[in-house]
Amino acid sequence: MHDPEFLLAALKSMLKERRIGYAALAAELDVSLLTVKRTLNKAAVPLDRLLEICRIAKIDFAELVERAAAIKPRHTFFDAKQDELFTRCPPMLTYFTALQSGQSPADIAKQFHLMSASTTRYLDALAGVGLVKVTGSGTWIEVESLMEPPVGFSPGSSTLARLSAAFLTSVVERVVAAASRHDADFSLLKPLRLSERQYRQMTGELYDVVNRYSFLSESVGFAADEDERPQWQLAIAASLADRTSDPESAIRNLKPNEAT
Fold this sequence. Notes:
Elements: H1 4-17, H2 22-29, H3 33-40, H4 47-57, H5 61-69, E1 76-77, H6 80-88, H7 91-100, H8 105-112, H9 116-128, E2 132-137, E3 140-145, E4 151-152, H10 158-176, H11 196-218
Parallel strand pairs: 1-4
Antiparallel strand pairs: 2-3
């Protein structure tokens, strides 16, 4: 894959590996921090700027292209023990997601006013089910995520069921049935007559699209406080049509003047 988005994702990943952040890049490039943020959050970086960043970070351009070409955006799924932890303690998933976004335990503790004992409980529980590796102690803690993004839930997940029910209810209230909508809100309901093969092909294509953008979402390579992109929620669901789900639409004898 040589798409600009994956080249940029590979660049950010390699910068993160070298512990080079926006501020350091801005200083080396002699531009403002805002300029660097805007540059690295565009769909593509100009070639001259890309080569300059590679020079500063000592990244071989051929290696960058190779890394981008090797990107295969397939989901990693939580296992049964991890899913059970998130079901038993929902804040655990939010904490893990914050770590995945690049926030440190100290960042999270400061943002949510956590006591050190709570931070320890979060990290011990996540480490206990193989989601993170924790090294160090006290004020110096290093946390390594053991899950490659993008990350998702397997079919039958109890956490997925809980999140889906809450989100779909929210979508109906905020998007479908709302009197006024945000200009970026989107909903689509489309009855389709397709063969089983066509249906499987369509859902497979949708799955690939979501995987692609999930990778771009979760593999940004910088801490959350440096990521200015808005966060969106996406739900896609499909099933065999159930005519009994909308009894009001069933064909029937009409009463006088009912249609006028």
